[in-house]
Amino acid sequence: MSTPIIQIKNLMKTYKLGGETVHALNNVSLEIKKGEFLAIIGPSGSGKSTLMNMIGCLDRPESGEYLLDGKEIGKMNDNQLATIRNQKIGFIFQNFNLLTKLTALENVELPLLYGGVSAKARREMSLEGLKKVGLAERAGHLPSQLSGGQQQRVAIARALVGNPAILLADEPTGALDSKTSKEILQVMKQLNELGHTIILITHDLEIAKQAGRMVSIQDGQLLENGGELVGHLSIY
């Protein structure tokens, strides 16, 4: 069994809503192995966005433990969390989040620019990222000159370029038609075969089924594929 890259134990997160306390995460525990392709599925209000924010180091739990590569995330300050996000996690969003005035290559280069990588190395690494998603020949195109599927491929290349430990994809096919969605999922499968750990957040069961493993979240609690509540000791 490969080493877990993520170990989540008994996470709790509550919100106040209309005078009531809502358990967005209710004693959630989960392990994700290196190289795994995991889908987390749930409807609106199930807690999946809160869990995604926790995994992506965008929020902290009220209690419980989150270890990423063996490091406790909950005790880190904002600057440390920003460093973890920049170095360890590649984000893929539903609406691509590309800068319209930059070319595909320049969009992919952005994380490396912020990371202080030299211009020559940025270009080489970004071209390699575009090559991985089959878009090297479109490097000089603006987002407006690309289809929705091509724009999402650029966004995937941008998430990949710093070689993060995890790709965290939030509804990556939500703005795409069914044919293009299948193409994007195929790209993600290919990346997973290359060894990338991928966590896919979705509300769509057919999309979630494309992953190697699926857990569902409901009322802030996790359920494994067969419907068994995910326990805090072992889920394998």
Automatic annotation (TrEMBL):
Q: Which SMART domains match?
A: AAA (SM00382)
Q: Which Gene3D superfamilies match?
A: P-loop containing nucleotide triphosphate hydrolases
Q: Where is the ABC transporter domain?
A: 6-233
A single GO molecular function, which one? ATP binding
Q: Looking at the keywords, is Cytoplasm present?
A: no
Looking up InterPro entries in the UniProt record yields:
AAA+_ATPase, ABC_transporter-like_ATP-bd, ABC_transporter-like_CS, ABC_transpr_LolD-like, MacB-like_ATP-bd, P-loop_NTPase
Keyword field contains Transport:
yes
Q: Which Pfam families match?
A: ABC_tran
Superkingdom is Bacteria
Q: Which CDD domains match?
A: ABC_MJ0796_LolCDE_FtsE
Keywords, ordered alphabetically = ATP-binding, Nucleotide-binding, Transport
Q: By what name is this protein known?
A: ABC transport system ATP-binding protein
User: Which species expresses this protein natively?
Assistant: Neobacillus ginsengisoli
Source taxonomy lineage?
A: Bacteria, Bacillati, Bacillota, Bacilli, Bacillales
